[in-house]
């Protein structure tokens, strides 16, 4: 356990979107926090994966290892995203092959040594930062397919009062029994399949009876990102998501409620 | 029927524990079905009452029992679940506890039921998933297996579900050569779009050589069994018995595929059914080969190097 601050900024899934990362970090500095955490998947989807790393270092961002980081760091064959649909896997592989080929050896070494989880104790609350779930880096825990008693079991088995996770690409939070809380902090890498082009990070504030969670929208130069994706030969489908806010790929993994909210 | 599922009493058979009770299944319509599919892995039919309906009370009791165990998802299968006269009430009750999925052939759905379910779905924070089983993406391939006219009837059911915005997952056992898959699936997807299902969701299953399928093609060969050697380094979370159990009117069984196996009943309560199961069946081999064949895509466990944090 580590002695830790009381106001955290957390985000997941940068997916090489260094422009959104810059904008989010500027916002975080403006608001003032005690520490900044990234819950994994630094590269993927977007252009120029190496541009993310200096920003993280300059702002002392502490990172958890996501499935993508494990894959790229260890030069595995695929991203271990956990998709089961052939079309989802087709696009995931294009994204992964590009990201692996454009991540330097130095940055691969950095990704390789990241921890699978970080534990903090803040105001007597045990806080667990992980990527997918406390028990599996690439587990999808969706808002509409997670029962309260399941989330309580995850917390109990992980000896945690507050679990902060990401991986699914869509933020949400659930207040549980005995003051426990499960929070998906969202991602900076791509919009949330709601037709809005901004991305999200999360402020978590400790102190007092409740843990306060605030989801913060981040506006950034999405048009420039999409142009750079095009210049790098990344799929038109990926660019469309950045330009429109609607997911065009990796859709089959969505439960019906989350799928229904999207356009495709 | 049990004769097709011999138990191999061999200490070398790998045992799998219920590592995490994530999914609770209900054999809610028993083995009663309005169709008599020639490949059905538990030989369901209008006359097969070897397993009976589960009542709303029974389901309610099991839902309550599942809370302290931290169960996540609830799945309903049969037979045809909507032959159970309490099916709509059962799904509405389940959505109070967590996400619900019902596996149906979509040939008996009524507007009044779907309206009530759409209302319950809108009021719940949990997903209600419909999975519609067909077997072949045309009358020519589907109907010889499922019966004359069943493709057209299922398609009408799918369109009805889409009208209520349920976005059903169309589930088909692979009755075509794997090499033809892209073409077969592509043609079917286009046809669904023409029928008004703008964003079709599909799940392709491997064929299980059990039940009626033994007569249609063949059963499992003795060599198609899981050995201890095969389990070395294997991610057990790919097997459904690692994370699920199914309630039947005879007790709690190991998995939805093996309810007719003589060793399938593990206990009368959910807690009792938390004990290891020997992977002695041919169907275990299919589950091993393909992984997560019964779960929804959204519940996929990725497996691989990132399967567990170190």
Strand and helix layout:
The complex is a heterodimer of chains A (264) and B (310).
Chain A (H helix, E strand, L loop, with lengths): L6 E5 L6 H14 L3 E4 L13 H7 L3 E2 L3 H7 L12 H16 L3 H8 L5 E5 L2 E5 L18 H10 L4 E4 L6 E4 L5 E4 L14 E7 L6 E7 L3 H10 L4 H9 L11 H6 L3
Parallel strand pairs in A: 1-2, 2-3, 5-6, 6-8
Antiparallel strand pairs in A: 1-9, 4-5, 7-8, 9-10
Helix pairs in contact in A: 3-5, 7-8
Chain B lengths: L14 E2 L6 E5 L28 H11 L6 E5 L9 H8 L5 E5 L6 H13 L4 E7 L4 H8 L3 H14 L5 E5 L7 H14 L6 E5 L6 H5 L11 H4 L12 E5 L2 E3 L11 E3 L9 E2 L3 H9 L20
The total of helices of chain B stands at 9
Helix % of chain A is: 25-40%
Radius of gyration of chain B: 19 Å
The fraction of residues in strands of chain A falls at 15-25%
CATH architecture of chain A: 4-Layer Sandwich
Largest sheet of chain A: 5 strands, mixed
- Cα(first) to Cα(last) distance of chain A is 44 Å
Account of the protein in words:
- The complex is a heterodimer of chains A (264) and B (310).
- Chain A is α/β, with parallel strands linked by helices and 264 residues long.
- Chain A has nine helices and ten strands.
- Chain A has one domain (7-261): Metallo-dependent phosphatases (Purple Acid Phosphatase, chain A, domain 2, 4-Layer Sandwich), CATH 3.60.21.
- Chain A has helices at residues 18-31, 52-58, 67-73, 86-101, 105-112, 148-157, 222-231, 236-244, 256-261, and strands at 7-11, 35-38, 62-63, 118-122, 125-129, 162-165, 172-175, 181-184, 199-205, 212-218.
- Chain B has a single domain (2-307), classed as Aldolase class I (TIM Barrel, Alpha-Beta Barrel), CATH 3.20.20.
- Chain B contains nine helices and eleven strands.
- In chain B, strands 7-6-5-4-3-2-8-9-10 form a nine-stranded mixed β-sheet, covered by helices on one side.
- In chain B, helix 1 (56-66) packs parallel to helix 2 (87-94).
